Amino acid sequence: MTASAPNREKTDLREKEARFFSLPAGMRCAWFLATALYATNLILAFVLPYFTEHKATYAPGPYAVLLTTAYLLYVLQLLRGKKKSTSDIALVLFAFFLLWETSYKLGWIHNDLLIPSPEGLFHVFVEKPGEIFADVLSSVRLLFTGVVFAIALGTVLGLLAGWIARVREVLLPISNVVTLIPPLMFSAYLIMLLPTFRAAATGVIFFAVFWPTFQGMVARVGQIDPAVIEAARTMGVGTSGMLWKVIFPYCLPGIIGSVSKSLRGAFMCLSGAEMLGINLGIGFFIEKYKSFADYRCVLAGIFTVGVVTTLIDIGVRKLETILVRWTD
Amino acid sequence: MTTSAAPILELKGLCYDYADKKSRFTALDGIDLSVRKGEFVCVLGPSGCGKSTLLRILAGLNRATAGEARVRNQPVKGPGTDRAVVFQGYSLFPWLTAKGNVLFGLKQNGRRYTRRERNEAAMRYLRAVGLEEAADRYPKQLSGGMRQRVAVARALALESEILLMDEPFGAVDPRLRTELQELVSKLSSEEGKTVVFVTHDIHEAILLADRIVVMEPGHIASVVDVPFPHPRVLSDLSKTDEYERLRLLLTLAYYEKTGNLTGEGAGI
Question: Are residues B192 and B75 located together in one domain of the fold?
């Protein structure tokens, strides 16, 4: 047993080696290219001087950290799966940074107020980490409250309306009208109606998610496989059992699947909602620096929104695989 | 099995029309039938003869246009746990495991169980259909035959006296079908169930039934008694002269009035 252990390790290593070299030549080539581009970007960030005088210069540290993070994520993805597009994405990304960096430093970009250098953009995260963190936290809290309430209520009412024709005939026409009104349009009224600015902002998010959730749920209940309903009926399932023990679990994958779409809708209203007076949140951050004409911070804010939304989306998908194991 | 025993299921002058705005189609036209307690009745007929409609009315899923269906001398008003149903399609709950599906049936059957008793009962029914190992698998992870076996286990878990089956093995491959038929034959005689079993397969009907009701569209064409003792095994039966005689009789009854000479689905 003990004698064979090192042998096994050796064969393991050989297998790994073999697997790496058995990667299609094209994929290996793409990996080398992406790595080379990453390294070039890194070197340029530290070495390439600014060829014009009036440009603001920033320390390249934060930008280098971002590049490295992106590269590490790419390698991780490459090791995990064998999708060819992984390398393509990395190539596009690093090529984009390369173009941006060189055109800025060589002075091809004349309006450096609107288009900052990549170093400048990512330097924002070192300048205002507390502010950004507080804003992200506020936004996430706002979203979470609004979205959770909206999904809970929308699902329950949608379930009732989907199953009970009388409820549906009342609620569906109303929802067909109200859905079309952009939620930000009644924000002015919500501010007066609700006690705090935060409540009003939550209200806007709520309405952005509630009606689509409700309508989606009604549609989902309508599309249920009749065989499942009949099987439940022959087992003597009553109305409440039908709603909670049959239709709800049957629709659960659809409900969770629609969450990321709902979140997208909520994000659309976020900056508008945060402008209602809470003066906090990443949407507000962007609007604020827009009015200061500080587009470096605006871009950093937009980047942050991208990162946060993606992380939330990934979280929701994880939740789906944990909660729903029975679908294909 | 005496003819004097009170019927547990009774159809009196049963009519059923499928109607929409434009047209009207009579699926059943004056059906009279009674099923005794513990009897296994096969309703045999070609597609579209109304046999599934008949079963759906017994199950309480459809309501008779005229006449009535009675269970234990009470008119059928809707589905109930006194009649377990196995459908042709896969009507298992996809979000529950095989065991979960059987547990659902047990929870609906109105008897009080402790958690442990219920778990044991679920495993007992799964064992009865030979699926103990598949207890924790979801329907999508089961083959068609396995799903139908779980559906049978779920129906058994309702612990009702009456079992209604609508071509439950129609979509199962032939070899497995014989296995499932023998299983149903065994379980129903062991547990003394009253079964109404809809099929278009003559062999299946002979293997399972105490009495075969042959249908032509809308009507009952003839009723044939099957004298073989239970449990039956198809390979033993099919060698006997009596089996051959019955098969011929049924084949004649099956085709005589339906005019369907292509033999589609008749299993001859």
Answer: yes
Residue B196 forms beta bridges with which residues? B41, B164
Domain boundary among the residues B138, B159, B180 is at B159
Contacts of B93 in chain A (CB under 8 A): 228, 231-232, 246, 249-250
The H-or-E segment that residue B85 falls in is strand B83-86
Query: Average pLDDT for residues A158-183, to the nearest whole number?
Result: 92
Whether B79 contacts chain A with CB within 8 A:
yes
Cβ-Cβ contacts under 8 Å for A209 (sequence gap 6 or more): A146, A147, A150, A151, A154, A262, A263, A265, A266
**Residue B266 within a domain:** no
Tell me if B47 sits within 8 A of B236, measured CB to CB: no
Give percent helix, percent strand, percent coil of chain B, each to the nearest 5: 35, 25, 40
Task: Let me know: does B61 contact A230? Beta carbons within 8 Å.
Answer: yes
Q: CA of B84, closest CA in chain A: separation in Å?
A: 7
Task: Establish, for the pair of chains A and B, how many residue pairs have beta carbons separated by less than 8 Å.
Answer: 61
Residues of A in contact with B89 (CB under 8 A): 227
Contacts of A252 in chain B (CB under 8 A): 95
- Number of domains present in the structure of chain A: 2
Which of A229, A234, A323 is the best substitution to test chain B (most B C-beta atoms within 10 A)?
A234
Give how far B252 is from chain A: nearest CA, Å: 34
Report chain A residues whose CB lies below 8 A from the CB of B81.
Answer: 235-236
Q: Scanning every residue of chain A, which has its alpha carbon at the shortest distance from the alpha carbon of B93?
A: A228
Domain count, chain B: 2
CB-nearest partner of A252 from B59, B81, B95: B95
Per-residue pLDDT tens digits for A111-150: 778 888 899 999 999 999 999 999 999 999 999 999 999 9
Option in B90, B95, B105 nearest A249 (CB): B95
Binary contact (B84, A326; C-beta < 8 A): no
| ipTM > 0.90 for the complex | no
Instruction: Give me A57's structure tokens.
Output: 């210069």
Q: Which of A80, A111, A126 is the last residue of a domain?
A: A126
Nearest CA in chain B to A241: B108
| Diameter over CA atoms, chain A | 82
Please check whether residue B51 is in contact with residue B220, taking contact to mean a CB–CB distance below 8 angstroms.
Answer: no
pLDDT in the model for residue B136: 94
State chain B's mean pLDDT as an integer.
87
Q: What ranges in A51-117 are assigned the alpha helix state H?
A: 61-80, 85-105
pLDDT average, residue stretch A166-184: 90
Instruction: Look up the pTM and report it.
Output: 0.81
Q: What is the pLDDT of residue A127?
A: 93
Q: Measure in Å the smallest separation between the Cα of B22 and chain A Cα atoms.
A: 24
Annotate A4-56 with DSSP letters as a single string: HHHHHHHHHHHHHHHHHHHS-HHHHHHHHHHHHHHHHHHHHHHHPPPSSSSS-
User: Does A115 share its domain with A241?
Assistant: no
The residue segments making up the domain with residue B254 are: 1-82+162-259
Question: Do B77 and B100 fall into the same domain?
Answer: no
Q: How many CB atoms lie within 10 A of CB A319?
A: 12
Residue A213's CATH number: 1.10.3720.10
Judged by DSSP in three states, B238 sits in: coil
